[in-house]
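[audit] Reproducing an earlier prediction to check determinism. Same input, same settings, fresh worker. If the tokens differ from the archived copy the diff job will pick it up downstream; this log only records the rerun itself.
[audit] input (281 residues):
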Amino acid sequence: MRSRARAFTLVEMLVTVGIIALLMGILLPGLRAARRASYATTSQSNLRQWGVAMGAWMASNDDAFPWEGSKVAADMGSNLAVREFWPNALPSMLGIDTYAEMCERAFQAQSTIETWNAPGSVWSDPAAEPNRDGPYTFGTAGPEGVFRQFFFSYAMNYRLNQTLLMQAGVPEASRDVTMRMAQVGQPDKTVFMLELRASDTELPPNDPHRNGALDRAICGWKKFAARHNGGGHMTFADGHVAWYSNEQATTNVQGSRDPATPGGDWNTSVLVWDALGPALN
């Protein structure tokens, strides 16, 4: 007898496609949530390592914090020439290359700096999604047109020693006076490092902090990340890491997020930005 192959009917195919679509609708949100959780865990681990490095640095340097550096992108070359600049100081405590070494290596090879495209690095938050084509640049171009580069997922709290510098009458980027751990009265609330926004698109268009420059190695509440469930992670002076919503981190003691709040103080009962306070805009 002649055998006849049985084909799928149109109804059977539609049912099969419908089942597959249903399963994808069930599984994909769970997979996305698992990926977000994995990214958050990785970033917390990175920040814990920076906290460990901070403790080791202070133990070896008379209890002094590393230097946060100048916030001006054009000054990055001068920053990287300083041993105490945190991207140079802390890596040495972790047994990895300083940022100055990585920067110069990439420039000599006329290639992209590692912190831009190395998601497995302690420098990189895998959840960071910059809306630009490459790292920030400074200096003059090399023989193939590539500049020296930098890009940070994490940054040091540059308001940590604001009052200390003001009392000494020196500029905010000065190294003439140095903050020490003994001056931090609430180490469990005092922000040391935090996730820096990779892009202003992490915030809604009407957010008062959306349009700040992000080409920095330092950070305050205005440039704090919002990529992890509407917030981000911070390392505190006592070494622990915690998540805070962007709204909570950017709300001052007066209950406002407006940078122009009269007498605005961003030191609150939960977060201390300036260890000697108040934390001014």
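[audit] rerun output stored. Observation attached for the diff report: The two ends are 89 Å apart (CA to CA).
[audit] end
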